[in-house]
């Protein structure tokens, strides 16, 4: 192999379709792409290969690489997502309205924006890229709460500041936010606005996220439409319909005046649009409505509560007493159970049989020595039980007249087969005939 300043000499030892083996000095083997060999080179050909370093191309490559890095830095590296700044917009007795500036995430993408209450995830903010406020309801009165936002993006997670809020008491009316609709009485409207100003409340002509009440005297959009029936302008106003969609209570201006007089939040049940004003619970003419069970009673407030012992049986009983089918009473025990007609018939058959004296009486038979207790010691019974006891007492003093149609006669019991009492045959053996010898 001859070595020069510009090239190296090699001998082609083996040539394949894609790779050539070049033999150099001292049996050096070099794999060289066959496509780079000169045209017509075959096995045994001698070739010179020159290798030079291209410094200009290296500088161009480095310059392109760092230009790309600078462009990426300017596009994505100088700005990063900013944590949201949570602010308090309004607070009432049971709700809190929060707001924040528009979310800035630079070139990143928003994954989620969650609201946390007392360090517990409450809900996700819908449309976080455009929504900048939220209202949280269902809170407790006069209670401390802490809120914060957590922004999750493709460039990382960012948390907002912690906002601590305490809900209002019932005497604090500064959280009232009223949207006025169509109030036909202009004097009443001005008085309501003055009352709101003294209560440190606020009002507007458009429904906002912190609006707590919609005040009007008619759902019509204009006063002329409220007066003219059948007119096209009699349709409900846009703000009135929006208040219904957002479940904002629609009340009369008298509610504002009541809150101003009472110096506290007054219940709105009696001030809804279309409802008649009801006196407060502490006024002189207020009476609590009775329940269905109390409304059916006729006793006065000064009368004592009813005594169950003095109440007649007809009023105490929830169901009428069961009807009795006959006057036969079991005297086998002092419990007073009635005997069925079938048992009475069986007992009559047993008493008329010759072995009646040997048999033992069963529970439910008649005891001739039984006597009914005197009326003074017997408990109070109603008219039906009194008629039954009278018939029973008459049956004890004399024979009762009973018609055959009033007695249900059961079918006669089956007659058992008499068994032989001889000692040669056991009671447990079956009857067999004479034996016969059969020759085998």
TrEMBL record:
InterPro entries the record matches: BRCT_dom, BRCT_dom_sf, Chs5_N, CHS_Export/Cell_Fusion_Reg, Fn3_2, FN3_dom, FN3_sf, Ig-like_fold
Leader sequence segment: none
Pfam families: BRCT (PF00533), CHS5_N (PF16892), fn3_2 (PF16893)
Cellular component GO terms, alphabetical: exomer complex; trans-Golgi network
UniProt feature, compositional bias: Acidic residues: 426-440
Positions of the BRCT domain: 210-273
Coiled coil regions in record: none
Protein's recorded name: Chitin synthase, class 5
Naturally occurring in which organism (per UniProt): Pleurotus ostreatus (Oyster mushroom)
